[in-house]
What we know:
430 residues, 6-stranded antiparallel sheet, disordered N terminus, LVIVD repeat-containing protein, LVIVD
Amino acid sequence: MKKNILLFVIALSSIMVSCIDDDSISGKREYLVAVPLTSDLRQFKEEAIDISEPEPIQQSGKIYAYKNFVFVNDVYRGFHIIDNSDPSAPENVGFIKLEGNNDISVKDDRLYADSYGDLVIFDISDIENIPAAKRIENAIYQQFWCTVGFDVDWPEADLYDYSEFDVNNEAIVGWEVKREILSEEEFMEKSGYGRVSEDLAFNSGAESASSDSSTGQGGSLARFKIVGDYLYAVEWGSISIFDISDLDNPKTLDDVYTNGAVETIYNQGDILFLGGTQGMYIYDITSPDKPVFVSEFIHGTACDPVVVDGDYAYVTLRGENSCGNTESGLYIVDLTNLAEPKLEKFYSLTGPYGIGFKDDKLFVCDGADGLKVYDKSNIQNLTLLNHFKDIVTYDVIPLQNSLLMIGNQVLYQYEYLENDIELLSSYSLN
Length: 430
């Protein structure tokens, strides 16, 4: 989700107006106008949550490991619960419907997730009897896009008429398209130009308000990260911060706005590393409620997850489709001086996504080119230990005893060997 979606809507409307070829005497012309079909926002969000029996996955997203469970995101729909007590024979045991969901993070049996910009908290101490969730509205972001149903198809139209849409109390569940004869002034009024910024703009203000723990583990594509008693959630141009010392009653703290557009988050101790479309951004969380910018490593436009081991950051850049035109590959960044990170080595890749490491093994999900396993003991000369071809790869989580990887609706698990890994199981989520 991008906070500039509204600016895009306004700009699009303006472009449409500038391109009108009006030959009529009246100065009007015919448009296809899409009007939102709405429902009550509170009811809409309540119906977006449900606990159900296992069901087939539609679009596999990120994975998250906690205790003997693996949670697999079904993009914008919720997440599947996999009992992984036996990695050679995982079992799908349930589905948590949570529309508008992308990420989760878990601490001490409290699962934190996003849903249409809200923070949702589940008690998963009894995975077979999960009670009603708690929802903190607009905790992560508050914007127009968050009130559009994940399964709503956008129709072809000259104009999307939001002039009667109440962003604070309504959700868009569909569209009605009709023909209207409008002047340029009427077109601009219906487009919301001049009032969109007031009614639908992002709310930059946050609503105010360690002991030993068991915290789960996400992959390099995660937007959520728990460090101590704090949950950090990155959302395009900001870090949302929550004090979760009271697990059931998180406090929403002030957002920190980042130096660039960010997509992923990783930490090494008290340092956060944010992967973004233009670079890697480093923040100090010595004061955990107030991340402080340290430095940045700027690269060309690309999708950019990052993991860090000691003095080196391993960044995969994917420069295809909407990600940009930067050469796809693995960028190894020297962090010896955090104030001045610099490129140490580059290795070409096909179209990488997630990345992870365990000891001297580096695992790279190279999209349709499969999973690649490297020996990273000498960063100047990475050695390819294995290449698992003919599978689509998305993200990995290196656990203590095995490697988790999500591909195209398949959960793969591998056993570590001395100089390789070996497939333990492949579990279809369909």
